[in-house]
Amino acid sequence: MWPLYAAGFTTAFDAHGIAANPGSEGAVTSVLVLGGFLAPYDGAEALLKPLFGSLADRVGARPFLLGGLIAFAVASALYTAVDSTAYLWAARLGQGAAASAFSPSASVLVARLNPSSHGRAFGSYGFYKSIGYTLGPLPGGVLMCASSS
């Protein structure tokens, strides 16, 4: 389970750490634009999780777990490397799409590895993801402040 815990923590930490970094200085000109940076991630997840979950049932969870993690890393790297608002939005959309492939597959594997204790297993997995969600924004904000100084 530790690799799944680590993957859940890392994706949550990264997604929220990046959410605290709205790109180049001056890219966020209003709260509406900030919402525009945050929404593509969640929108892609909401729309694509059922699709990737169905595909994981047909093909297997492991390829979608690994592919989602790799795509997530690529989208995250893209976000840190670009300066255009359109590319920043595209990178967040890519992160959300990758998370939608990773997340259902991780859940399948958590269930398979713990056939007699689903509640405890999902509670533990959710704990590590929640820690990532909680800890990600602060270092992301610190990095943003340090890079703009």
UniProtKB/TrEMBL annotation:
<dbReference type="InterPro" id="IPR036259">
    <property type="entry name" value="MFS_trans_sf"/>
</dbReference>
<dbReference type="InterPro" id="IPR020846">
    <property type="entry name" value="MFS_dom"/>
</dbReference>
<keyword id="KW-0472">Membrane</keyword>
<feature type="domain" description="Major facilitator superfamily (MFS) profile">
    <location>
        <begin position="1"/>
        <end position="149"/>
    </location>
</feature>
<keyword id="KW-0812">Transmembrane</keyword>
<protein>
    <recommendedName>
        <fullName>Major facilitator superfamily (MFS) profile domain-containing protein</fullName>
    </recommendedName>
</protein>
<keyword id="KW-0813">Transport</keyword>
<dbReference type="Pfam" id="PF07690">
    <property type="entry name" value="MFS_1"/>
</dbReference>
<dbReference type="InterPro" id="IPR011701">
    <property type="entry name" value="MFS"/>
</dbReference>
<feature type="transmembrane region" description="Helical">
    <location>
        <begin position="64"/>
        <end position="82"/>
    </location>
</feature>
<keyword id="KW-1133">Transmembrane helix</keyword>
<keyword id="KW-1003">Cell membrane</keyword>
